Amino acid sequence: MSTDQQQDWSFAGIARGYEKYLAPMLSLWTQDLFEKTALGAGDEVLDIACGTGIVARLAAEKLGTDGSITGVDVDSEMLATARSVSAHDGVTAAWREANATNLPFEDHSFDVIFCQQGLQFIDDPAKALRQMHRVLRRGGRLALSVWGPLEQSPGYEALGKALEKHIGESQAGVNAVPFSMGEEESLRRLLEDGGFADVEVDTSTREVRFPSPREFFRREVVSWLAGAFDEPTKDERRAVVNELEQSLESYVDSEGLAFPMEVFVASGRKA
Ligand SMILES: C[S@@+](CC[C@H](N)C(=O)[O-])C[C@H]1O[C@@H](n2cnc3c(N)ncnc32)[C@H](O)[C@@H]1O
To answer: How many independent structural domains does the chain possess?
Structure first.
């Protein structure tokens, strides 16, 4: 069978591809969030824009029997996957379909709030931060992560250029959305304006790996890009893959493609 079969690239729904490929990649930075909040037994945790629930699954063992975790997301398909994977893994969590800008919780309900790679996708992040502040208890802790500037993630920078050249400007624009909050001072101000005290923004750079440049592009397509625009044609795919193989040559070793990615971990406290 050809490695470039149509089936390989077919878009079977964001949540499935997301859980398989993107959630494990994002989880490389989840411990940073736990450390910033000193997550521990008994904490009542809210995970905003929880996606398929990777943060809840990793937090579960730290929370003990007195702690709890609630995941919130606007996307019912992501939540359905979160429910089924956590049940399969024996993790107890509550899942709520809601917008981060209008959280369905009483004031002062949680000890800790996480938002891993979610703020960039929320239509009104300032409002969402005010909501997070509202539902935290006094002394409660917030930690969130967003990607740093696109140039600090060379694989995605190269992908953006290849998409722009061979598929279109708007598709390259979609690729850039996750990196749209990669400005440290603006991020710090956003948390401060949201009411948080002791705001810190740390940089955390780690290496991500893919079997090849082709597989990097395929995974991006099936785990989220195809949800934002039409599946690329076979010719478009080939052109993007060729381009990536050239532009990312210096990041390919005997085990495949590896490049650094910079993340901002922002944290604060409700005074
Ligand atoms: C990149 S994913 C991150 C998911 C998860 N935090 C993780 O680490 O795997 C972004 C998530 O934000 C969610 N999202 C976008 N806008 C939202 C909003 N206004 N309120 C709540 N969730 C939102 C999306 O549905 C998606 O699941």
So the answer is: 1
